[in-house]
Amino acid sequence: MRDFRKIYIPLLIAALVVGCGDGKKEAAAGEKAPTQVAARVNGTELTVHQVNYALQRIPNLDSEQSRPASLQVVRNLVDQEVLVQQAQTDKLDRDPTVVQALDAARRQILAEAYMGRKLGTPAEPSEAEVTGYFSTHPELFSRRKVYRLQEISIKAPKEKHDAIRAQLTASKTLNDFAAWLKAENLPAKAAQGVKPAEQLPLAILPKLAEMPDGQAMVVNAPDGLLVIVLAGSQAQPVTLEQAKPAITRLLQTQTRQKAAKDELDALKAAARIEYMGEFVDAGKEAPAQTAVAPTEKIASDADADAISKGISGLK
Fold first, then answer.
1. Looking at residue 287, what is its pLDDT?
2. Among positive and negative, which fits the CA dihedral 43, 47, 53, 56?
């Protein structure tokens, strides 16, 4: 049996935003049919609509689980309402921090609701698009590998970057390179791990796929450089048929992201936007990032998860 109390916890805060006092307003409008009221707390009604809304947000809920889940949802709504009423008694709904939090949550919900309605459901990519993505990214599919990596994150100013790169080339071992960093008082942090291709940034993956074991590469990081040493790799290719569901989801995600950006850009172009005072620089175009840390995933979490789940589920 699933722990629906744990599943429902994230919904408690969201419910505060969408209307804590709805029950009181509805009660004032007239008595409801008994089937529309799930519970009352000090006269405030909690409705079946509130229960159904919460149930819709529980993922993978089947018919056998719906009854115990609905009972737990009602219990959680009662717990929440007791707390909300006491918070209102204590005038916490007038606390500036609470007001700001409620307003921020409301704005986020409205923004997501607009974009969700505007974009709708993305269309299925064509067979040609799926095949094309598979063919243009062999490092993810037909030549997919699992990489054993050693990483050295170096905090250093830009004027030191060339010297660091030169020293890495000149060092015979990583220990020699690490000793040089220490002598130069350059803070460095080492890490190692095993990562499949889809959990590496697409910006560096093609180069990494061509590197022989033991070779190193250097990429820019927000506060310095990141040295990536390929300690070893193992080929684990997947076929087009195996990858097709994952690629389909990935392309749908990319299409939706592009449509969202285009819609936002159009709305901003039509709006009158002024950045004031100390925030005037926010109006300037943000600098493009030259590299992505290897701990980040390809394009987005959704994209990488689509590939990972598709591959692991079909192999």
1. 56
2. positive
Encode 210-235: b = buried (16+ Cβ within 10 Å), e = exposed: ebeeeebebbebeebbbbbbbbebee
Residue 20 reports pLDDT greater than 90: no
Q: What is the CATH number of the domain that holds 191?
A: 3.10.50
- DSSP 3-state assignment of 299? coil
SS3 state of residue 286: coil
Half-sphere exposure for 277 (CA within 13 Å, toward CB): 1
Question: Does 198 share its domain with 243?
Answer: yes
The model scores a pTM over 0.70: no
**Same-domain status, 217 and 73:** no
Shared-domain flag, residues 11 and 141? no
For residues 10 and 1, give the distance between their C-alpha atoms in angstroms, rounded to a whole number.
19
Residue 154's beta-bridge partner residues? 188, 225
The answer to whether 307 and 298 are in contact (CB under 8 A) is yes
- Residue 235, C-beta contacts closer than 8 angstroms, at least 6 positions apart: 143, 144, 145
Q: Number of folded domains in the chain?
A: 2
From CA 146, how far away is CA 270, in angstroms rounded? Answer: 47
* DSSP code string of 199-215: GS-TTTHHHHHHPPTT-
- pLDDT tens across 66-100, in order? 889 999 999 999 999 999 999 999 999 999 999 99
In contact, 55 and 74? CB cutoff 8 Å: no
Distance CA 130, CA 249 (A): 10
Asked if 242 and 311 count as a contact pair (C-beta separation under 8 A), the reply is yes
CA distance 223 to 216: 19
Residue 195 neighbours by CB distance under 10 Å: 16
